[in-house]
């Protein structure tokens, strides 16, 4: 190859490079003299800066800088950095011909000849204003999100690593769990789970579900720093990078203990209303039947009395006596039904229930046969109530006998009184005010929830045939309702039962009024379908 052909090829290569530089419009590509004056100008430079080649060649490149940067001698320092370090790269504001600013990415490289002498600079500028705006918008969005997360105190919002380690912590998380950021970050999310859930591997299941299905949501008990529990709603979302690779999880936890308790209270209120309406309907039906049955019994009893006067043989006398006993049992049964239906006539007066219980205590103690311990705990400052004392005593006796039957292997029965203030509908549908609470509690077998729900229904019993009529608790319930009060059953299988009677209290002192337990030479006919009830009352 000759020198002439090399020169032609070198010229052609230079020509192609100049055409390439001139055609580029996305970058400003131009040359600077060693002093920083513009020596060349391409289409991209003209598009970015607004100057034609004729307007700018020979001018100092510092004219593209802002007044602040020129005052700080930034253009000179840029060239010095390129000379000393072989390259200068930066971003900053630059100025167009019309005075508008744009955000530029700048690269300046020194150009040297074969002897290493500086002959100028190659400068590449790109307008990245839109990219900067997008970055600033992203930063602003991230800052807003950070402020949002840090400002939220009702939700625990934090990030987890792929293996479930906590990587950040917000004030809501601190408020709900009690852990500070220093205490929480770097620990595993399983620390908030109860032991039973950790033993079942629920923390890992939650992360696996979020990864596999794109989201995990659930509710359950969580543990605070002080060991107390709260009911939490938990949402876990997987976080993936641009390649779809899992890089962590976002976790949101909310303390919904109060919401859960409110829902449970509403459910209990609905159940109580349903039970009340059901018992009301049963009461109306029972009352009607008992009333009609009582009328029929009156005819039968009167007829038996006439027959008794006409009996002339021992056999007929025995038969009539059997009929009288049966009629008496029928009468007692109707009275129990009428009590449940709240149609039994009452003779009410003012009483201090402590006095009633103390006077009736010997009977109650005789009802506790075997190894059952009977304990009485009375509130000494009990207010008075209005009750029918004999009916109240019968209710107590029913409760004590039921408690005794529920403790066949021995145990403790506690009879207690307590004065208390109730809020509106705190106990079923009772009005707000002062009440006396009488509780019979045993340590016996307890009842299943479905049994407790039916316990006050007439004729419902879990005892063997012939061991009870199923009217005991229904009679107690009817009696207390007639007093204007209510009855609550608390029970659990294997833990015993507590039945509480709530009776409205009178305003005023604690002394018993004019009403009291009478004593004298009166006689009473005792009839009961349970022999032990007769035994303890004789």
UniProtKB/TrEMBL annotation:
InterPro entries: HATPase_C_sf, HATPase_dom, His_kinase_dom, HisK_dim/P_dom, HisK_dim/P_sf, PAC, PAS, PAS-assoc_C
GO molecular function annotation: phosphorelay sensor kinase activity
Domain PAS: 13-86, 141-200
Catalytic activity annotation: ATP + protein L-histidine = ADP + protein N-phospho-L-histidine
Coiled-coil stretches: 252-279
Protein EC: 2.7.13.3
Listed PANTHER family: HISTIDINE KINASE (PTHR43065:SF49), SENSOR HISTIDINE KINASE (PTHR43065)
Protein name stated in the entry: histidine kinase
Species annotation: Nitrosospira multiformis
């Amino acid at each position: 190859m000759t020198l002439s052909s090399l020169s032609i090829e070198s010229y052609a290569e230079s020509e192609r490079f100049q055409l390439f530089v001139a055609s580029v419009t996305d970058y400003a590509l131009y040359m600077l003299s060693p002093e920083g004056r513009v020596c060349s100008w391409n289409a991209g430079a003209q598009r970015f800066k607004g100057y034609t080649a004729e307007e700018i060649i020979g001018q100092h490149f510092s004219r593209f800088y802002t007044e602040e940067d020129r005052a700080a001698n930034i253009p000179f320092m840029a060239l010095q950095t390129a000379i000393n370090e072989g390259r200068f790269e930066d971003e900053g504001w630059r100025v167009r011909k019309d005075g508008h600013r744009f955000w530029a990415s700048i690269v300046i490289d020194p150009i040297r000849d074969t002897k290493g002498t500086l002959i100028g600079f190659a400068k590449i500028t790109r307008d990245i204003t839109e990219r900067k705006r997008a970055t600033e918008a992203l930063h602003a969005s991230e800052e807003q999100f950070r402020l949002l997360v840090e400002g939220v105190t009702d939700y625990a919002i934090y990030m987890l690593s792929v293996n479930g380690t906590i990587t950040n912590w917000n004030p809501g998380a601190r408020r709900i769990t009690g852990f500070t950021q220093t205490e929480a970050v770097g620990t595993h999310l399983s620390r908030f789970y109860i032991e039973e859930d950790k033993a079942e591997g629920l923390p890992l299941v939650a992360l696996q579900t979020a990864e596999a299905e794109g989201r995990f949501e659930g509710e359950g008990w969580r543990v605070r720093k002080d060991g107390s529990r709260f009911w939490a709603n938990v949402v876990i979302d997987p976080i993936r990078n641009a390649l779809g690779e899992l890089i962590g999880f976002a976790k949101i936890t909310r303390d919904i203990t109060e919401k859960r308790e409110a829902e449970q209270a509403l459910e209990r209120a609905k159940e109580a209303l349903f039970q009340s309406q059901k018992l009301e309907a049963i009461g109306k039906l029972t009352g009607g039947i008992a009333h009609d049955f009582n009328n029929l019994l009156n005819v039968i009893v009167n007829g038996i009395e006439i027959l008794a006067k006409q009996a002339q043989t021992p056999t007929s006398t025995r038969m009539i006596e059997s009929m009288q006993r049966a009629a008496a049992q029928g009468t007692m049964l109707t009275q129990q039904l009428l009590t449940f239906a709240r149609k039994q006539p009452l003779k009410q007066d003012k009483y201090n229930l402590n006095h009633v219980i103390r006077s009736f205590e010997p009977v109650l103690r005789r009802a506790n046969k075997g190894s059952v311990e009977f304990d009485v705990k009375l509130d000494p400052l009990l207010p008075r109530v209005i009750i029918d004392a004999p009916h109240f005593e019968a209710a107590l006796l029913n409760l004590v006998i039921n408690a005794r039957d529920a403790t066949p292997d021995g145990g403790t029965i506690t009879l207690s009184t307590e004065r208390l203030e109730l809020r509106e509908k705190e106990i079923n549908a009772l009005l707000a005010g002062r009440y006396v609470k009488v509780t019979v509690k045993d340590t016996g077998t307890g009842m299943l929830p479905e049994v407790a729900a039916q316990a006050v229904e007439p004729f419902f019993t879990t005892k063997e045939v012939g061991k009870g009529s199923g009217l005991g608790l229904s009679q107690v319930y009817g009696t207390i309702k007639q007093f204007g009060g209510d009855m609550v059953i608390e029970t659990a299988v294997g833990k015993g039962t507590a039945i509480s009677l709530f009776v409205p209290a009178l305003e005023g002192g604690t002394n018993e009024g004019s009403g009291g337990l009478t004593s004298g030479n009166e006689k009473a006919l005792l009839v009961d379908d349970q022999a032990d009830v007769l035994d303890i009352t004789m």
